[in-house]
Design brief:
Number of helices: 11
Distance between the termini: 36 Å
Largest sheet: 9 strands, mixed
Bound molecules: benzoic acid
Helix content: 25-40%
Low-confidence stretches: 1-17
Structural class: alpha/beta
Length: about 375
Amino acid sequence: MAHVVTVLAFTGLTGTARAADNVRIGLMLPYSGTFADLGKNITNGFKLAIAEKGGKIAGRDVEFVTLDDESDPAKANENANKLIKRDKVDVLVGTVHSGVALTMARVARSAGIPMIIPNAGADELTGALCAPNIFRTSFSNWQAGYGVGALMAQKHKSAVALAWKYAAGDEQTAGFKEAFEKGGGKVLKHLTLPFPNTEFQPLLTEIASIKPEAAYTFVAGAAQVKLAKDYHAAGLRSRIPLYGAFITEGTLQAQGESAQGLLTVLHYADGLETPRNKSFIESYKKAYGGATPDVFAVQGYDAAQLYLVGLEAVEGDTSKRKEMLKAMENAKLDSPRGPLSFSKSHNPVQDMYIREARGNQNVMVGVAVKQLVDPSPECKMQ
Ligand code: BEZ
């Protein structure tokens, strides 16, 4: 069951009372199920950026309304409407699951309310569904798959893909295939299983019998721990190297030996030796009892940074929506991942780092693609 928890983080208020002057931020994210940790880390990152501003945006106090979307597309319409119509949030922030985010974007588009997507990669969000009020601080699914395909093409000639059967799995696999085949590789088979199923065994047996040079995968969250362990236990690691974007993100401790040495490609890496990243990690650890941030925390942090740019440009006056959205569109963020700007379709333009799992870190060992832009041909901004 979805439930609404009102957190009045930086005000003295309790319950659902609302001070007229507060900026109300709706966080619609998964706080249960396989993506629960992703939702938590996005929330932590978002709140940290606001806390670093003294808990205020352009001089106004901030209220958070959080809602567990359960990664359930069937509940997304009702949940997004609750936040907008009942809770009257000023901005909708969410979510992780592509299918849920697609419905949220339709609701946000018709309400005209600003929406910032801190993870979900559905290509349409910054493609056919693009809109002046919809922004993404994470990646498009095409981008995430493309980065991995570019790396794998440098090393292998054939591969099998294994992915959840929904927008994220289909689109990331398509991005992977495009880059891999452009580099001379061949995808022998695209194996799928329903989200959030983790019955990998029959698919691993099939991979072993196809004997590709390598395997590409998209599953995420808690499920990726099981996949890495099952893959390792099946004896496939040494014979058919496993790659992906997310497969080791935030889960290295739980994966143990099964993930050591895995190569992944994402727009953030633990070992980025920039002063910005170092200060972000330090600040995050201090705020959250020593916890280390991952890409999801960075995406949440940057979602807040983007909103800050918009609201500060209008001195906190949310009624000046057009001016605010313009400022967000032109934002140049100092992100822990590196400088971050946005394409015409409001999707990040970013370097895709090659990372190697060593101990509990995804250490940066190179760049797969510099400043990767999703061309978003379907986006007609109006
Ligand atoms: C998605 O549904 O878009 C997604 C979920 C988890 C990680 C990456 C993408």
